[in-house]
Amino acid sequence: GLCRRSRRGGSAGLMWLQQREARGALRHTCEQGEGLPRYGWLQHDGDAFGVQEIRERGLLLRTEFVKRPGGQHGGDWSWRVTAHPDMTVDSQDSLISLFFYVATDGQGTLEPHVEDGTRLASVTGSTEELGSFNISFLKATMETGAAPKHASYHYLDAPSPGLHLLSALVESSLSSRAVFAAPGGPRRRFLAVGARRGPPEGEPRGHLLLHQVTLQLPGRVEVTFESGSVAGRPGPLAGPALSAELAAHAAAFDRRFEETFALARKGFSPAEQRFAQAALSNMLGGMGYFHGRSVLQSEDTEQPVLSAEGALFTAVPSRSFFPRGFLWDEGFHQLLVARWDAALSRDVLAHWLDLMNAEGWIPREQILGEEARARVPPEFVVQRSGSANPPTLFLALQQLLGTAPLPYLRRLFPRLRAWFHWYNSTQAGTLPSTFRWRGRDAQHERFLNPKTLPSGLDDYPRASHPSADERHLDLRCWMALASRVMGDVAERLGEPAGLYRHTQQQLSDNALLERLHWAEHLGAFADYGNHSEAVGLERRPARAAPGQPLPPMVRVVRRAPRLQFVDALGYVSLFPLLLQLLQPDSPRLPLLLDVLRSEQHLWTPYGLRSLSRSSPLYMKRNTEHDPPYWRGSVWVNMNYLALRALHHYAAQPGPQRERASHLYAELRANLVGNLFRQYRESGYLWEHYSDSTGRGQGCHPFTGWSALVVLAMAEQY
């Protein structure tokens, strides 16, 4: 589907249904649990062009769109959908219905134009932001577009209940009274919409018009949108004209991709280049404009409240599974987006900073409006004002800083200053130059190790007993990065930078870092807190009464905790390396490189695992229903930071220069090679990868930070 970047801009989209003896499942979205072999963008330029393929049993759908600028309202666009039979199963001559819809969201008008009683030929309409327009639904053709194709047409005219309820509305309007009768072919019943529906339950939000075309595979359908403000249009963007425009944009995309990332010049095969193009395209094609109210819980209120209405233009981790903004993910996303389109990335950063409250806090998950809340488990909906998230937007800003216009930076600077102050005032530790994530799980008895969701690393092991004495290494390193970037921005603007440079100097002081976080007996940097390694999960009581369910598993502490460094060798231990805080001649650098390269600890043939195999909590469940997450899997964002750091140290004079260069080359080959193999075998990029087999795990497709593989291939850090 598509919509305008507007709170009330309306929407248009596609549904489809494979007609199997007047039965079938209506699809409006591609969902992870449906077992589709592959779906996603093959090419998408983030602006005016995209090609997508969706494969399911019996069907290959190819959708293509292109925009043609002009007028005062964004110009024209056209959409082509080609449906092919899946040659791996007997689907030739199968019936498919394609449903194209346009809906307003409480503002604007739509007027249907119907031919032959059942075919919605076009829609004229107007909205405040789009002006007047005409949408034409062209007649079906053969897959090449060369000849007309027999099809049956139906339409639906109904009040719109909102985008998240459209599927249910359409499904409820289907009946099996329609008959498909191609010349010389058998008569077949199929599911078709009725012409009109009464108002849906609840208050209607707008107007829905839907065009259904039913045809035998293969076939093609085109839809054109023409803006009333475009003058001197050369002709409809359809048929051969559309083919030519799509071909020109595809060629331009290929050229721009190679100019930006140079993968062909680096020796990557055509298949590897297509993989990288798909990774970038799904990042760009998954970007969305979200608006509504968040549910917030302040320390000053007893009950959660709705925020003021806000809007966010952002990339997302997974458009089908996580279709919303995540703060720490977004900094990683923009590292890639900024290489492709710096202006687009600057726009996203500004949207995120505009969501800041008066104290300088940005909620870590942006669940804006009813549609977004409908897809989120209730326990994650409420955003608590004391909880932070890694300030990764500074990573992206650091990359953008050299070319960002000064007026843009001046608008951002007050928000950046407030954000930086919020972290320093709310996440500081008890000792100077220490930091502690607030918001760890309070119900200690439920978890083997209470989660630290604000850190982004969720179940990564921390001190077993949360307390005010904790010192979190990763947060301290993030604040070192933030102070450095704040100093750079301030100096570029001619603003006072002394405070930021002083903080940067303190947090980058290797001697102070060692005093606070070096665990000599572990041979690594570590968190510090009230900790016991003698914890486990047990059923209490051990047996259930006859006929009763098993009692729950609870945490058992076999030895009292004490203040100490936490034995959790893994990603957190590497943060002084990952964010390049260690001096090239630091005596701790070779020790971290030892840990990184040790197969007993973090090294695998697929990338760096998140937690050492020697850790007491390696691959341990946190509850009986809570499998390990950041306790061994290979995560692409952290591996990208490791490559970035090794690339840095390989370029610095120092005793570890040659070793860092060798490790960099080996790690890059392992990570890129495994992600490409898994994509080729499964059809997807994944949220994380098994440290023992390399297989994709968790959410898929996950083209958020896993798409950083493109930058690893391009060696852009």
Automatic annotation (TrEMBL):
Catalytic activity: N(4)-(alpha-D-Glc-(1->2)-alpha-D-Glc-(1->3)-alpha-D-Glc-(1->3)-alpha-D-Man-(1->2)-alpha-D-Man-(1->2)-alpha-D-Man-(1->3)-[alpha-D-Man-(1->2)-alpha-D-Man-(1->3)-[alpha-D-Man-(1->2)-alpha-D-Man-(1->6)]-alpha-D-Man-(1->6)]-beta-D-Man-(1->4)-beta-D-GlcNAc-(1->4)-beta-D-GlcNAc)-L-asparaginyl-[protein] + H2O = N(4)-(alpha-D-Glc-(1->3)-alpha-D-Glc-(1->3)-alpha-D-Man-(1->2)-alpha-D-Man-(1->2)-alpha-D-Man-(1->3)-[alpha-D-Man-(1->2)-alpha-D-Man-(1->3)-[alpha-D-Man-(1->2)-alpha-D-Man-(1->6)]-alpha-D-Man-(1->6)]-beta-D-Man-(1->4)-beta-D-GlcNAc-(1->4)-beta-D-GlcNAc)-L-asparaginyl-[protein] + beta-D-glucose
GO term, biological process aspect, one: oligosaccharide metabolic process
Keyword line: Endoplasmic reticulum, Glycoprotein, Glycosidase, Hydrolase, Membrane, Signal-anchor, Transmembrane, Transmembrane helix
Topology within the bilayer: Single-pass type II membrane protein
Subcellular location: Endoplasmic reticulum membrane
EC numbers for this chain: 3.2.1.106
GO CC aspect terms: endoplasmic reticulum membrane
Record-annotated Glycosyl hydrolase family 63 C-terminal domain positions: 239-715
Pathway recorded for this protein: Glycan metabolism; N-glycan degradation
Molecular function terms, GO-annotated: Glc3Man9GlcNAc2 oligosaccharide glucosidase activity
Matching SUPFAM superfamilies: Six-hairpin glycosidases (SSF48208)
Classification via InterPro entries: 6-hairpin_glycosidase_sf, 6hp_glycosidase-like_sf, Glyco_hydro_63_C, Glyco_hydro_63N, Glyco_hydro_63N_sf, Glycoside_hydrolase_63
Domain Glycosyl hydrolase family 63 N-terminal: from-to ranges: 11-154
Aminoacyl-tRNA synthetase among keywords: no
Recorded family membership: Belongs to the glycosyl hydrolase 63 family.
Entry function: Cleaves the distal alpha 1,2-linked glucose residue from the Glc(3)Man(9)GlcNAc(2) oligosaccharide precursor.
Name the record gives this protein: Mannosyl-oligosaccharide glucosidase
Source organism per UniProt: Eudromia elegans (Elegant crested-tinamou)
Designated gene of the protein: Mogs
